[in-house]
């Protein structure tokens, strides 16, 4: 082939690729939805995010603030056309009132046939999702959380003992700890125990297989991140090529872990108050309730149980540890708040009369709840939540005025962190102030302006379990140690966070000092 022909062919390929990359960039203009001029292929995303010079969390806040006079705005995320809603009444319509028009999440990589994702509650759609949600809901009641609290507390004690041993080995009667690693190990052990029914101590066995596998699943870096981007750009191609987001080795590990455990428990009639038992119990109850409805309901298989256990791991691994890191950092930055929380913890400890901490006593702690609520407001572990329009829909405000035409398949996003940092709803939003959630002030908060676990029927079903984990470990850490600054402590979290993570470049270094010193 002559050089000229090669150049013509390359030019044609580049031209076609360019046309493909910008083929959707007329949509917001045609529908008169406010938006910025997109860049080919990248869309409206900030290229500095990909280079690690800025963060996705800052981008979401800045875009939200840029359209303060609009009820909605558009963001081209590469080729995806994402409609962001910032008006609280419209959020209520999409998330609750007109839920049937927006019943599902967009599932990147979830429809490719992987049991790992495709059968999990967050990916299931329409009637399948409703049946699974109804089946799982009884597993997350207060009575079930009380049963699992003992398992959480065991992991808490092991984590606290690790800190104590590190202090004993030091010369200064204190210890500097990178708390992201610490809280990740605690969360790993807590989920292993509550969701998978296995006891692990990741502080002693620091490179155990469960921990390694969990890190591989939850750290979207390298080739996994590249595949995730391709799933977003060309999902149909990825499905045709049968490319999976995660290696079969990871999928098989969780498969054997859950399926073998269920089989062993059935054969030996073993009962352990963890998620596997609760799901097996829910499955049995569901089958009894639907036994007379042959062919009219979805079958509840062992693979369904596997998918839910794995979802609890993926959803909880990073979000819980992130919440703990930010909470600990805010307590470090606000010693007067830490001292007040310590006093409440002492009161609770004294009321136990020497007995171990229990679920009910922990849940009664008012100031603890205020602190965690404010942490989730300022640093929501999930910065966005989404819905997919199921049928053409006319979006109107509370006065009936037309806002925009939403078409079937459109992606709708709620910029949670933008709303949480909006001074209209939270004066001085960058200030950490638990008093926002006091009994006196909490009633003033619009429910749609506080969405740490999502909105409506699709909100996180495991939020009680997550809060129990967070409060339990914070209780014991503050009871036994004072959190203080080190030379390596990050000075400005928002400026230090980069890319698509919530981890600052300096990470979360803190000094822990024994209370009895």
Description:
- The protein has a single domain (55-514), classed as Cytochrome P450 (Cytochrome p450, Orthogonal Bundle).
- The protein is built from 22 helices and nine strands.
- It has helices at residues 3-21, 27-31, 47-50, 56-66, 88-97, 115-118, 126-136, 142-169, 179-196, 209-218, 222-233, 235-240, 248-268, 275-289, 302-333, 335-351, 359-363, 366-378, 416-420, 439-442, 463-480, 493-496, and strands spanning 72-77, 80-85, 175-178, 385-388, 393-396, 402-406, 411-414, 481-484, 509-514.
- The strands form three sheets. A four-stranded mixed beta sheet has the order 1-2-7-4. A three-stranded antiparallel beta sheet has the order 3-9-8.
- Helix 15 (302-333) packs across helix 18 (366-378).
List the SSEs and their pairings:
Elements: H1 3-21, H2 27-31, H3 47-50, H4 56-66, E1 72-77, E2 80-85, H5 88-97, H6 115-118, H7 126-136, H8 142-169, E3 175-178, H9 179-196, H10 209-218, H11 222-233, H12 235-240, H13 248-268, H14 275-289, H15 302-333, H16 335-351, H17 359-363, H18 366-378, E4 385-388, E5 393-396, E6 402-406, E7 411-414, H19 416-420, H20 439-442, H21 463-480, E8 481-484, H22 493-496, E9 509-514
Parallel strand pairs: 2-7
Antiparallel strand pairs: 1-2, 3-9, 4-7, 5-6, 8-9
């Amino acid at each position: 082939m002559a050089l000229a022909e090669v150049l013509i062919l390359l030019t044609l390929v580049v031209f076609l690729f360019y046309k493909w990359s910008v083929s959707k960039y007329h949509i917001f203009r045609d529908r008169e939805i406010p938006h910025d001029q997109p860049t080919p292929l990248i869309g409206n995303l900030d290229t500095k995010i990909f280079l690690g010079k800025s963060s996705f969390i800052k981008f979401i806040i800045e875009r939200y603030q840029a359209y303060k006079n609009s009820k909605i705005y558009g963001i081209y995320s590469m080729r995806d056309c994402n409609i962001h809603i910032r008006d609280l009444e419209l959020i209520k319509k999409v998330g609750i009132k007109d839920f049937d028009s927006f019943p599902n999440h967009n599932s990147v990589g979830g429809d490719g046939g992987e049991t790992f994702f495709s059968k999990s509650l967050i990916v299931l759609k329409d009637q399948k999702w409703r049946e699974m949600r109804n089946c799982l809901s009884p597993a997350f009641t207060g009575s079930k959380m009380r049963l699992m609290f003992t398992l959480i507390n065991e992991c808490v004690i092991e984590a606290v003992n690790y800190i104590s041993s590190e202090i004993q080995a030091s010369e200064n009667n204190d210890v500097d700890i990178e708390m992201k690693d610490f809280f990740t190990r605690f969360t790993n052990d807590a989920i292993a125990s509550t969701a998978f029914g296995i006891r692990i101590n990741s502080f002693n066995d620091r490179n155990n297989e469960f921990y390694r596998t969990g890190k591989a699943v939850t750290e979207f870096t390298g080739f996994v991140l590249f595949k995730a981007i391709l799933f977003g750009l060309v999902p149909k191609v990825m499905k045709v090529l049968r490319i999976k987001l995660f290696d079969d080795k990871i999928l098989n590990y969780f498969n054997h872990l859950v399926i073998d455990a269920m089989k062993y428990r059935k054969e030996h009639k073993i009962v352990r108050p963890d998620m596997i038992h609760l799901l097996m119990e829910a499955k049995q109850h569901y089958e009894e309730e639907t036994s007379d409805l042959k062919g009219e309901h979805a079958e509840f298989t062992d693979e369904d149980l596997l998918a839910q256990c794995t979802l609890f791991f993926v959803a909880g691994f990073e979000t819980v540890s992130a919440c703990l890191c930010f909470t600990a950092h805010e307590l470090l930055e606000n010693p007067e708040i830490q001292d007040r929380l310590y006093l409440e913890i002492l009161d609770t400890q004294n009321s136990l009369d020497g007995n171990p901490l229990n679920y009910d006593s922990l849940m009664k702690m008012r100031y603890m709840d205020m602190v965690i609520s404010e942490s989730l407001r300022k640093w929501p572990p999930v910065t966005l939540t989404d819905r997919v329009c199921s049928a053409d829909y006319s979006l109107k405000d509370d006065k009936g005025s037309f806002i925009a035409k939403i078409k079937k398949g459109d992606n709708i996003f709620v910029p949670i962190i933008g709303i949480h940092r909006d001074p209209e709803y939270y004066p001085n939003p960058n200030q950490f102030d638990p008093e926002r959630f006091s009994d006196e002030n909490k009633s003033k908060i619009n429910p749609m302006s506080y969405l740490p676990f999502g909105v409506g029927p699709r909100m996180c079903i495991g939020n009680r379990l997550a809060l129990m984990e967070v409060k339990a470990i914070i209780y014991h850490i503050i009871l036994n140690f004072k959190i203080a600054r080190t030379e390596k402590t990050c000075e400005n979290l928002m400026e230090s966070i980069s890319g698509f993570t919530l981890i600052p470049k300096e990470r979360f270094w803190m000094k822990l000092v024994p209370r009895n010193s």
